[in-house]
Amino acid sequence: MSGSTFGKIFKVSTFGESHGLAIGATIDGCPAGLSIDPQLIAKDMQRRRPGQSKITTQRKEADEVEIISGVFEGKSTGTPIHLLIKNKDQRSRDYSHIKDKFRPSHADFTYTAKYGHRDYRGGGRSSARETAARVAAGAIAKMLLNKHDIKIWAYVSQVGHIQLDKHYKKLNLELTETNIIRCPDPQIAEKMIQLVSEIRKQGDTIGGCISCIIQNCPAGLGEPVFDKLHAELGKAMLSINAVKAFEYGSGFAASQMKGSEHNDQFHSEENAIRTTTNHSGGIQGGISNGMDIHFKVGFKPVATIVKAQSSVNQLGEKVQVEGKGRHDPCVVPRAVPIVEAMAALVLADHLLRARSNRI
Amino acid sequence: MSGSTFGKIFKVSTFGESHGLAIGATIDGCPAGLSIDPQLIAKDMQRRRPGQSKITTQRKEADEVEIISGVFEGKSTGTPIHLLIKNKDQRSRDYSHIKDKFRPSHADFTYTAKYGHRDYRGGGRSSARETAARVAAGAIAKMLLNKHDIKIWAYVSQVGHIQLDKHYKKLNLELTETNIIRCPDPQIAEKMIQLVSEIRKQGDTIGGCISCIIQNCPAGLGEPVFDKLHAELGKAMLSINAVKAFEYGSGFAASQMKGSEHNDQFHSEENAIRTTTNHSGGIQGGISNGMDIHFKVGFKPVATIVKAQSSVNQLGEKVQVEGKGRHDPCVVPRAVPIVEAMAALVLADHLLRARSNRI
Amino acid sequence: MSGSTFGKIFKVSTFGESHGLAIGATIDGCPAGLSIDPQLIAKDMQRRRPGQSKITTQRKEADEVEIISGVFEGKSTGTPIHLLIKNKDQRSRDYSHIKDKFRPSHADFTYTAKYGHRDYRGGGRSSARETAARVAAGAIAKMLLNKHDIKIWAYVSQVGHIQLDKHYKKLNLELTETNIIRCPDPQIAEKMIQLVSEIRKQGDTIGGCISCIIQNCPAGLGEPVFDKLHAELGKAMLSINAVKAFEYGSGFAASQMKGSEHNDQFHSEENAIRTTTNHSGGIQGGISNGMDIHFKVGFKPVATIVKAQSSVNQLGEKVQVEGKGRHDPCVVPRAVPIVEAMAALVLADHLLRARSNRI
Amino acid sequence: MSGSTFGKIFKVSTFGESHGLAIGATIDGCPAGLSIDPQLIAKDMQRRRPGQSKITTQRKEADEVEIISGVFEGKSTGTPIHLLIKNKDQRSRDYSHIKDKFRPSHADFTYTAKYGHRDYRGGGRSSARETAARVAAGAIAKMLLNKHDIKIWAYVSQVGHIQLDKHYKKLNLELTETNIIRCPDPQIAEKMIQLVSEIRKQGDTIGGCISCIIQNCPAGLGEPVFDKLHAELGKAMLSINAVKAFEYGSGFAASQMKGSEHNDQFHSEENAIRTTTNHSGGIQGGISNGMDIHFKVGFKPVATIVKAQSSVNQLGEKVQVEGKGRHDPCVVPRAVPIVEAMAALVLADHLLRARSNRI
Q1: Is B303 in Cβ contact with A257 (below 8 Å)?
Q2: Is C359 inside a domain boundary?
Q3: CA–CA separation, D108 and D100 (whole Å)
Q4: What pLDDT does residue C99 have?
Q5: How distant is the Cα of D78 from the closest Cα of chain B, in angstroms?
Q6: Which of C256, B70, B224, C282 is nearest to A118 (CA)?
Q7: What is the pLDDT of residues B198-254, one digit of tens each?
Q8: How confident is the model at residue D89 (pLDDT cuts 50, 70, 90)?
């Protein structure tokens, strides 16, 4: 129960360390009869892979996903879908110098405190490499959601102090993939890219935010009490490496609002019941109401920096730590497909859970 | 699987509707031999109960918790601890006027969309009354945590635009319970109380924030991937009624920071490894590092307001909705013990999960 | 995680000790819109209750089931259905003499070994009284199954050496409830009743078997690997107090058969595919095939006997133990509704699980 | 939620089809610091592998287990241990003739009924090949149990009408692996081998039984209500392909016994509390009592036979089915390590669950 499984019906488990033989995911609970398109998996893997642009880590990983089981003649069989991604560019030697040192704001210390020893190569299980397996599984969740016309759009809405303030309805979300930072506003994107390039030159890193919109989610997904849809989305996002904050709908801003301002009034529109505003972010009482679901995720700056830092080793002795591994100056451009994948896993699970709502 | 269970080893399930016969909780997985003090349960129930001050709803509920099972001669037996809270002040007639109307920003519409019908009395299962059961269960989790010296302090850090900006280390957290808004800074508390009183007179409501500090949490709690400690805390908090946002450690502010600013450097201190700063909020790689855990939770304004609002009924016809039920002008003072309870449930669960970390 | 929850979607949790304030069950996952008939619950409770005939324990318990939550205007709401059964005839004094003694073949020793202390009154949580909560929950599961015409028939097929050898198809299962031993063959029933009466006079107890037939189960319930339908039924039955053995279809007899004898050949019949024989007991590869499901459950003799027995106390000192509490001479007549209830819980859960078989 | 996960803390998930690229298992919840010996995995794989003797299928499979993750420098890290077994000798062409036919007493029909289509090659996911993954995972569970001196011995106790009637205490269990049928009594073993050889020549198959003894299990494992230790063992065994029956301790024979005969009286022995007899099979009230745990598992004859059988195809039309694939004449010799593996998974899980018994 090391916490490597997500979901209750559409259940995804991941395994693997950064520099082990392979990483991967198993989906147990994908309904039978779903057409599985390996191209769609590859496409999302491309969006997450290292080395994709000048503002990401230059580490190279092919990240080819092999479908080992659960798919027959192009369709899911209802049995576990096993996805295997071999690790190729391992360079374990890069990490021997941190074998017994605790890198600041990494998981080296906490894994050692918890388990007594750790696979120190590239962070082992704590590496963001694990998220490649989530993206692969998420791509299959998206295929299921597509059958129900549910569409997920994530994009970078902040890098350092540069924010994209426009309401998402005023953005052309199709533009997100047209630039390397994945921001749908080309002018803001340019500024963000410039900032990341500067930070990169400094050998430093910078934080950022990703916003996510889910369209066409039917009303009725999510559960009343603990498994509220936004609570599940929140957990999903907070489980992504480097995430520090989550808000949905009006978010923290709601804490400054009055009820009379914040309430979303209902009206009828083309035979559907809709709300006039959407401070609820598409979720009321933990259950989707058919409006767009929208939320925002805050990421800290990547912990690996070139600059020397003070730390301790396993004996508690003072040491210096310097970043030698290849790393990202800013995590958000590569995290866009990860946010989408986790959102897809939550929705796919609740889509299936909702099948038992009524007799 | 209506999502009414929380936790994997220390598992809590709640049941009950606002105006049914009773609500309650069952804890399955409390270790045997724990001294159960009903006074400590009663104390937290008092902190949550309606009618406790002029700035809360005037609804009266005794909220007496009966321990039905799992405790023998004052000690837990290891079998399910069942906690029953009878509903006394029901006044169901207050709600007949909203039988077939959807109140704005309530769960009336989504429950109907999901289940086809709903217990409309006082919001039924969607009512914050459900959280009384969480507080009762949380009180028992706190008893387990106390055995390990783990202490949880929640307090109101914002109401509307009035913020408590001081770092928590500069506050005397013992003062939290000395005022009715539950803010440990008496001057700020006064301003908050004044604001809530004004809002109340307007028949309106206002949002707010609660901050929470967990002291003496040992290093090693939390799991590597999906069940990261902060992801579990985030889900726990987001599952509380009216919560819209969660951040831990540096939170959203981290998105504007550089790695060189944000990283928490390690040093040795009295035979323990500590960090010099604590942007990590006591959690690294999803696992506690022995520093204080701290997080912040954003609440929206209560949806029930006196002012008439436009809405629709079950047929989609336009109607007016007016708040008649007794309600809180601001949810945060009563939510302080709820935040603590949910934090306690997460920690109790992970304390037990950690027992299988090593052979 | 004391093992008090059963099922994955239609999840039932029980709580309570034999001589505590109450016992009960919570069903989390019953679909909304199910008509809940309290009479049907009461009917099954009557079949299980003590004191119902001369061959059961003379302990009296009203076993009234209160529906505390999850039902509104006669229909399930989709939220947890909480069922409460108060303990009335407690007579705790009956048990003080065994406070620190370990009764042979009871759970006194193992509970103490596991938990350090125990509620010794009437066996506490280990008492078969807990099964009253299962019967109440099972009655609701049956209401769901009835909607799909699935019918469950359990009956006593053996008491001591007296066996009902006839194939179930030659029995009139409607006769089961016409006699106090619950055997559908009146002649055999008479012999069984006589044997139990004799055993009772001796202050002794006797074992027996219950057979169970499930009709109209659709093909496709059950899961491929670990959660095979018969494995779940087996676990369900083995979790009932005093059960020592489970077999389905051809059972242990299959171990003496050849494949050519045992295989069930398929044929078409009225547009359905059926098997000519049914050694498979209605389940192939762990999944129902649309034929009758049938299985048999073996019960040991009740451990409480009047005769003095040698044992030890908590200090390991030799002591004598004599049965003083009121007890059943043979558990099987009262266990018939328990077997049905557990079968119903398994089927209700898999009926809902099957809703995610296909896209 | 296709039922491919077993256990709650020591959780094992398997994946893969008989003729896919690979099968395998992931263990999520193995404590850190366990020495993992690949030789011990290989040894159990050898005991299960096809082609090991003249009385098993002649299909050849190398069944090499690759440890992909979760083990570093020879020790478990606490993160998921992923075990991959590539399929080599696939010969898919052998199965094209049954593509649209339902083989009697196989899972072809039920998988199709459930999922709409199926991987028909060698039974796909329903093939006993899946149990190779269980044996690999079980070998690791055994390593954990070895640390606590818990030892599991399974052996063949019946083939067709040939039974090993001796009490297990009179057997030398070390002899089990000295013959190809895996029966610890050499004379009986010889008769069993002869019978299987004859059956094989007839192109037929035969059922059998496996008995299992667990020594040195500490008192206190297993949970009070649904997750009784024997209920979990029962489910584990019933989930193995071809199993039809399970009994523990006195088993079905208990149904003919009196309480005065059946009760196991306690006495003190070398500072431990023991029972004089062991009809309880080492488990009382669902919890281990420190005596040997013993149980028996009944297997049906393998469904694949050479003889032509009548059946139907997917259209319901009458067809003939003839066994062409290579198959076992009797499943029990190869099932011995599978029974042990599943027993090991149950015990490893409950060993860890028991860590939360007490504060």
Answers
A1: no
A2: no
A3: 9
A4: 87
A5: 6
A6: B224
A7: 999 999 999 999 999 999 999 999 999 999 999 999 999 999 999 999 999 999 999
A8: low
Spatial separation of the C-alpha atoms in residues A157 and A168, rounded to whole Å? 10
* pTM higher than 0.95: yes
C-alpha pair distances (Å), B113 with each of B108, B109, C74, C78, D230: 9, 6, 19, 12, 43
| DSSP-H helix ranges across chain B | 38-48, 108-115, 131-146, 186-201, 229-238, 259-262, 332-353
| 3-state SS class at A199 | helix
Rounded to 10 degrees, the C-alpha dihedral B106/A341/A226/C139 comes to: 100
Asked whether A330 and A199 are in contact (CB, 8 A), the reply is yes
Question: Does B36 map to a domain?
Answer: yes
Q: In Å, how far is C7's CA from the nearest CA of chain A?
A: 12
What tokens appear for B267 in the block? 């040093």
Kindly state the tokens that stand for A213.
């919109």
> Can you tell me whether residue D62 is helix, strand or coil?
coil
Q: Which domain holds residue D293?
A: 5-354
Residue A93 has pLDDT above 70, yes or no: no
- pLDDT recorded at residue A91: 58
B110-B330-B337-B64 Cα dihedral, nearest 10 degrees: -80
Residues of chain B above pLDDT 70, percent: 97
- Residues 44..83 of B with a Cβ closer than 8 Å to C: which? 66, 68-70, 72-73, 75, 77-82
Output the pLDDT for position C58. Answer: 78
Q: Find which of D111, D192, D225 to mutate to test the C interface (most C CBs within 10 Å of its CB).
A: D225
In A, which residues are within 8 Å of D14 by CB distance? 80
Q: At what angle do helices D38-48 and D332-353 cross, to 10 degrees?
A: 140
d(CA C248, CA C293): 8
Q: For the purposes of burial, counting CB atoms within 10 Å of the CB of B261, is it exposed (0-12), middle (13-18) or buried (19 or more)? A: middle
- For residue B15, give how far its alpha carbon lies from the nearest alpha carbon of chain A (Å): 9
The mean pLDDT of chain B is 95
CA angle D268, D274, D276 (to 5 degrees): 100
The tally of domains found in chain B comes to 1
CATH of residue C181's domain is 3.60.150.10
Predicted pLDDT of residue C325? 59
Let me know if residue A359 belongs to a domain. Answer: no
Q: Does A212 score more than 60 pLDDT?
A: yes
C116: left (phi over 0), alpha (psi -120 to 50) or beta: left
- Confirm whether B359 is domain-assigned: no
The answer to whether C319 contacts chain A (CB < 8 Å) is no
pLDDT digit string (tens) for C225-266? 999 999 999 999 999 999 999 999 999 999 999 999 999 999
What pLDDT, on a 0 to 100 scale, did the predictor assign at position D59? Answer: 75
Interchain contact, B31 vs D357, CB within 8 Å: yes
Residue C62 confidence (pLDDT) above 70: yes
Q: What residues does B343 pair with on adjacent strands?
A: none
- Is C115 close to D303, i.e. CB distance below 8 A? no
pLDDT-derived band at D120 (thresholds 50, 70, 90) equals very high
One-letter amino acid at C13 equals: S
Instruction: Give yes or no for A20 touching D (CB within 8 A).
Output: yes
Write down the pLDDT at residue A323. Answer: 73
Mean pLDDT of C147-161: 98
Give the contacts of B58 (CB within 8 A, at least 6 positions apart).
B50, B51, B326
